């Protein structure tokens, strides 16, 4: 008899949760026309402040997946000049180490989240412009 009342109690408890959800306003967004604002700590795409980058290669050396490629040349003033900065976002695991170790805050995460592509080659992003 105790099992019977326990079953009825659990059934009523489940129906209470269901009824509470039925009367609430839906939270569905109509995606293409309505876009959600991500949280501030969201890691979207890796971006580069080109003027802050000194081609020190720290981000390349610390990247566990080797998805960052930097080309540079040494100028007349014996300083490195950035030629190209390429990131393969298909290999990137969004760990954030490259952003954390950059002493000049040249790497940063943006808030974009629309990264769907049909070809993995489109995930290679050149940041030399």
Automatic annotation (TrEMBL):
Listed GO MF terms: 4 iron, 4 sulfur cluster binding; metal ion binding; oxidoreductase activity, acting on NAD(P)H; quinone binding
Keyword Metal-binding attributed: yes
GO cellular component: membrane
Protein keywords: 4Fe-4S, Cell membrane, Iron, Iron-sulfur, Membrane, Metal-binding, NAD, Quinone, Repeat, Translocase, Ubiquinone
UniProt-listed PROSITE patterns: 4FE4S_FER_1, 4FE4S_FER_2
InterPro entries named among the record's database cross-references: 4Fe4S_Fe-S-bd, 4Fe4S_Fe_S_CS, NADH_quinone_OxRdtase_chainI
All copies of domain 4Fe-4S ferredoxin-type, residue ranges: 44-73, 83-112
Entry superkingdom: Bacteria
Protein name as it appears in the record: 4Fe-4S ferredoxin-type domain-containing protein
């Amino acid at each position: 008899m105790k099992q019977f009342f326990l079953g009825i109690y659990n059934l009523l408890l489940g129906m209470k949760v269901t009824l509470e959800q039925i009367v609430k306003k839906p939270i569905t967004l109509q995606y293409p026309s309505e876009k959600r604002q991500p949280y501030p700590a969201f890691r979207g795409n890796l971006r580069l402040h080109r003027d802050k980058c000194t081609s020190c290669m720290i981000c390349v050396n610390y990247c566990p997946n080797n998805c960052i490629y930097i080309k540079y040349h040494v100028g007349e003033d014996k300083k490195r000049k950035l030629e190209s900065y390429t990131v393969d976002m298909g290999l990137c695991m969004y760990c954030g180490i490259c952003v954390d170790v950059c002493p000049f805050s040249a790497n940063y995460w943006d808030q974009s989240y629309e990264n769907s592509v049909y070809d993995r080659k489109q995930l290679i992003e050149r940041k030399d412009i």
